[in-house]
Write a structure and sequence with these properties.
seven-stranded mixed sheet, disordered N terminus, disordered C terminus, single chain, 22 strands, 19% strand, alpha/beta
Length: 559
């Protein structure tokens, strides 16, 4: 797919008066609400406009100063990055041009907020999280234009969990990439970041109890503390996963004595032998070492893709009958491990999460503890409804359409946006009570770690993340089709701290950008002027082509 040649001379002529910062153009007249991703749930149009100026301040309600100090400071930092200048934070009552923050409106859901746009712009919510998400909408609106149409928005999400998972076990992601994506998730009102910290090719956490298992590329405990703090600041919960008892290659490379051996003598590189006391001692050391490092209310034990043919491992049957009774099956050793790990997690006041594929019907005398959150990714074993009936919250982590696999399948983002909902599980399964499903995330699985760079992954998940944000927020879609949604995505762009956005910024200064043609909806015209090096416009295969960003009479041609 060809890149359009850079139109440097044309760009210089069209944008000669442009300066970095917030768009200065007039607000576009639209039939619906102002454009955000995800879209605003409710919008009542008013009369007039609000304009961000060099004198704009962030004004915090005196009654909410203590609760909103962090949100005001974060908003000021992000707004300053967008505007190219410092933005003052004061306490008092907002005047014309100011942005006011306050707590109230307790009838709103926990992450909901009310945005009132007139001579000034005010945000009110029942919680600091609600105010924070209101500030993300303001950033998106000001990214497009310094002027916002008057009106009132009431906005809240449908699902509690909305976010991203990255497979750091197979591919090491730099701390900078993770920090960028914490801010990116927050910009899209996504709140959940799942760190898959161990897998085939690596164990990525510094360890004082077992330094021998740690990969060369890993995160220090200070790295994690810094990421967790940034997540707190941006209302993004970081949930760790140390994958056990399968996918333990990196751990078992340092502990070959714990590898599971079959009756024929075959040694597994990734399964730990759950009949050995040393296996439990090692895993307990790791869970107890890392539980305090992550303040999230969850701990993910993995528990996916362990043994499929238990008959090959008679020691697992012997262990099960010794510990769980004469009628126990070999699979009970797996279920017993899940419950043993859950007891460790519960003792720390947290909730266990696990993948669904190991939980099947009538293959053991034990069942996983009710209360464990099961993440349903494929149609193995029990259905989502059966898992729910067994006492589990069931998160929708379906392969289709949320899996982004390096060297493998990618999300069908068009289908995700136009057809899928977070309550449609893999295989078309549903729950009778959708409230038992907390939400969904985009999953970056690094099966072939070298297949894509960090930059390529960031670009590749840009549109899937935004489609997921829309679907999990659950507001009316900003456009009926995915093709019509992509220009909205381009207009909203990236968070203000995204690499490359400081200069040259939005070249069009918020004005509409028009071109002679567009190759596909994935390369919209607005991407030529959004200041983001990760996006682009591509024309059709034909000459001549033109690009312009200026206002001309409707129906006439650009000059």
């Amino acid at each position: 797919m060809r890149l359009l040649r850079l139109l440097i001379a044309t760009a210089c002529a069209v944008f000669a008066l442009a300066i970095p910062g917030v768009g200065a153009g007039p607000a576009q007249v639209t039939a619906g609400p102002p454009q955000t991703v995800p879209a605003l749930r409710q919008w009542t149009a008013g009369t007039g406009t609000y304009t961000f100026t060099d004198a704009t301040r962030i004004v915090v309600d005196p009654a909410s100063t203590a609760q909103l100090a962090d949100e005001a400071a974060t908003f000021a930092q992000d707004l300053g990055a967008l505007a190219g200048r410092g933005v003052a934070v004061v306490t008092g009552n907002p005047t014309a041009g100011d942005i006011g923050l306050g707590l109230g409106g307790t009838a709103l859901p926990a992450e909901g907020y009310r945005m009132s746009v007139a001579g000034n712009l005010t945000l009110q919510a029942g919680t600091d999280a609600g105010v924070f998400y209101g500030t993300r909408s303001v950033l998106q609106l000001l990214h497009q234009s310094a002027t916002v149409p008057a009106g009132t928005a009431v906005d809240w999400p449908a699902k509690a969990e909305r976010g991203l998972m990255v497979d750091q076990g197979r591919k090491f992601f730099t701390v900078d990439w993770l920090k960028q994506h914490i801010k990116e998730l927050a910009y899209l009102k996504l709140n959940y970041f799942h760190f898959h910290l161990s897998d085939t090719y690596g164990f990525r956490l510094e360890s004082s109890t077992h330094p021998e298992i740690v990969s060369a590329d890993h995160y220090s405990k200070q790295d994690i503390a810094d990421l967790v703090e940034l997540g707190r600041k941006y209302h993004v919960t970081i949930v760790p996963e140390i994958d056990t008892p399968g996918h333990m290659n990196a751990v078992l490379a340092a502990h070959p004595e714990l590898k599971l051996k079959s009756s024929s003598g075959a040694v597994s590189p990734d399964f730990i032998d759950l009949s050995l006391p040393g296996s439990y001692a090692l895993i307990k050391d790791l869970i107890n070492e890392y539980l305090p490092l992550f303040p999230a209310p969850y701990w993910h034990i993995g528990a996916d893709e362990y043994v499929t043919d238990y008959a090959k491992y008679p020691q697992l049957l012997s262990y099960a009958r010794a510990h769980y009774g004469a009628n126990a099956t070999a699979k009970d050793t797996y279920y017993g491990f899940v419950n043993w790990a859950d007891d460790l997690v519960r003792a720390a006041g947290k909730t266990t999460r696990m993948w669904n594929d190991g939980i099947k019907s009538d293959d053991g005398t034990l069942r996983p503890h009710p209360g464990i959150i099961v993440e349903y990714w494929y149609t193995y074993g029990l259905t989502p409804q059966q898992l729910s009936d067994a006492g589990h919250i069931v998160a929708n982590e379906s392969w289709t359409p949320t899996y982004y696999v390096l060297g493998g399948p990618k999300p069908d983002t068009k289908w995700m946006y136009e057809t899928w909902t977070p309550d449609r599980f893999e295989g078309g399964n549903t729950l009778s009570d959708p409230a038992k499903n907390p939400g969904s995330v985009i999953h970056v699985w690094c099966d072939i770690p070298t297949a894509e760079t960090e930059e390529q992954i960031a670009a590749g998940i840009m549109y899937p993340l935004r489609a997921l944000a829309q679907q999990t927020w659950g507001s009316p879609k900003p456009a009926a089709t995915y093709t019509a949604f992509t220009p909205v995505v381009a207009a909203v762009g990236h968070n203000p701290a995204w690499p490359g956005l400081a200069q040259p910024g939005n070249l069009a200064q918020g004005r509409p950008t028009t071109a002679s043609s567009t190759e596909t909806a994935n390369f919209p015209t607005a991407s030529a002027t959004d200041g983001d090096p990760a996006t682009r416009w591509s024309s059709t295969y034909g000459d001549p082509q033109w690009l312009a960003s200026r206002t001309w009479p409707f129906g006439s041609s650009p000059t």
